[in-house]
Amino acid sequence: MSFQDKLASIMARPGQDPVAKDDVPWWMKYLGRGVGTVGSVIAILLGVWNCVGILIGNVPSLISGMWQVVAAFMVICCEAPCCCMFVDHVQRFSDWVERRPYWNRALGYVILSIPPVILCPGLSSIFGSGLIFTTGVIYGMMALGRKASRQDMAAAASPQMATSPTGLGGQSDHHTTLMEDPDVWRPT
Question: How far apart are CA 75 and CA 134, in angstroms?
Fold first, then answer.
């Protein structure tokens, strides 16, 4: 692979998926990439700020900060490998993550974002990990896909409601066959 091919693959747009996925809107792909990239940079800075807590002897704050920095680095390697192009194997890791379904990425980001908040529930942990969590939520919504049309939802809810012109399956009142069954006991 030449340097030009490698650079072209690193700078690939979010809309150019190597695997054709469902019909996710283009703006949602850019939103996921943008929140992941910008949120990771902010989470790295806030993670370093958490690490400063060791100066006052707060060990959970140090561990939380280190976890947040590593999690944010992993997210930025997946979302914007061009930011880490001088680190070996980042492009291969990013391509592997791109081939996975969206729900895998969503689950990974959500799981990565929880431990720093549990270890040190401060504002910098909540905000930094919250941005990673938000990226996971966006990819979770992408995994769900588009909402179905009104006709498709009506057809899935009740097959006879979708075929009837009145929308009630041909019935004009709300009686069911259970109420008209003579074998059913009725109070007198």
Answer: 12
